[in-house]
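LAB NOTEBOOK - FOLDING QUEUE
OPERATOR: T.R.
BATCH SIZE: 2
PURPOSE: Compare the predicted structure-token outputs for two unrelated chains run back to back under identical settings.
PRIORITY: normal
REVIEWER: second-year student, initials M.K.

ITEM 1
FIELD SEQUENCE / FIELD STRUCTURE:
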Amino acid sequence: MQLGIVGLGRMGLAMARRLIRAGHDVAGTAKSAESMKALEASGGRPSRNLKELITALDPPRLLWLMVPAGKTVDSIVGQATPGLAKGDLIVDGGNSNYHDSLRRADHLRSKGIGFVDVGIGGGVWGSEHGYCLMAGGDDGDFHRIEPVLRDLAADGGYLHTGPIGSGHYAKMVHEAMHYGMLQAFGEGFELLARSRYHFDLKALTHAWNRGGLIRSYTLELAEAAFEEDPRMSEIRGWVEDSGEGRWAVRESLDLEVPVPALTVALQARLASRQEDSFSAKIVAALRHRFGGHAVKKAD
């Protein structure tokens, strides 16, 4: 299947490579010359700019966006629309707010252009092991991109979540739940690190991963992180948030649904920026492991 990818950063390039290996015809454009060269070396077709990319695609076109949420998505949609035609389809695979997805879909629908919002999980490991994809959109648009979703996903790892907006809504909640999971790991390991016992945290996580109730992919990443830096001495306990947790907490207020654990986890990330704590170091290290997110080095 032919598609054009806008944005060849950490996720976009990895996804492009996975699709090329599966036999898809992938064109792409990015600001980075290195990413463009990497796409070409992987068998893809680089385009110098968005206009050239649209021209390189056969109608009806499939344009997949992998760019930062917010104004960047609006800018690209605005630039692309004049070059697109009725029957073309835009997929937003970034971490957009579902309200923005609904607004963009309405705008594109008036021009006969389809829109699908796809929440993507799996982080930097998705290229090798497959991603988890949550797609919101019309039935016809979903079935049109299903071959791409199937080849990007881990076995059974993609789903048509419902109408437009539902894909990004599901990803929002997925990320908010992950906030809570990471916070639980961070706090538990800090308790161990400050106890009267000198635990070998790498060895302990290894044992827990072989039968413990909390054994998981995240705990495997913790084991790897402790092997590299047993006491998290090389990074600061400064944890970013990419927005989904804030959106989920605001949604909970609108729906009057209590989410105390998710709210506290979000607040803990804000607190991490005020003082250095071991639990925040654990969360920062795990985010770096699963998603390639930047960490701040210790002074």
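ITEM 2
FIELD SEQUENCE / FIELD STRUCTURE:
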Amino acid sequence: MSRKSVRRNVALFFLGLLIAGGFTLYTFNSKLRPVASGQSQLVRVDAKVELSTELHILEEKGIIRSAAATGFYARVKKRENAVEAGTYSLAPGMTADEVLKALRTPVTVKVTVPEYYWISRTAELMEKCQVAKAEDYRSLADKPSEFAKVVDFPLPQKSLEGYLFPDTYKMQPLVGAKAAITQQLQAFEKKVWKGLDHPKNLQHVIIVASMVEREAKFDEERPIIAGIIENRLAKGMPLEVDATILYAQQRWHVPTRNDIKHTISPYNTYLNKGLPPGPICSPGLKSIKAAMHPAKSDYLYYVAMPDGHSLFAKTVEEHNANVAKRRRAMRDL
């Protein structure tokens, strides 16, 4: 073969390599190119996984074009080869760099559980914040035994009502009911069980505190109302707490005489003497402290005025007079 032929063949060889390389680069870039823009999605990773595994999931969801191309790009850029447990926000249209950065940055959401919420309302809040499905939260909250190893304080047997501490939490979307409930129980353990030096008769305290939470608007009245509840218990009087009827009905409104007479439930404290079977909401620290240290008085009755302040009475005659004051005040509104 002549030198000219050899040079021509070598030139053709390198030209072929150049064409092949260019084609490969073009193919790679096309697979790395973002897909059409779309709405962001929350992606949950329950346990640490290899990056390649998660990239294949993102490809299936249509967030990236090619898991293989994105994975190769990550290796070239010397990015992390694993994704930690967490919830991540990703969207079609992200570049490879944006996707890899997002998989290093778990997202959280602020969840504020008010003191007066009960399980069903908290469940709806958790679903609204995309933390857990309401049905899952309600179901698991009725299984205290599932959390026996999570905390050290004595859990009730039938329901976690009253123990799901009301607070502002930083939670991960899609984390699920068990993780959310665990976080609330651990907050109760820290702020109530340990923070208040292991309250004695815990279930009694939380039940009373839950009624105080729903009945008292002003902090200075909480210990007085707690004391009235204890006074009525000591005398064997029905507690006649309106909020317990509303809990039995699972809705918040002004109860009527018909509600009082016809709400057949162990939570109806007009028809049943003694404490209700369990708490009626998640009480805050102020109500719990009031239940632990009820005010000493001879009061047996209270009624709330339109501004939220309560009138207290020692006898039924005094109470009836206070009720009449309330009615006049309501008419004057």
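REVIEWER COMMENT (ITEM 2): Residues 9-23 have pLDDT under 50 and may be disordered.
FOLLOW-UP: none requested
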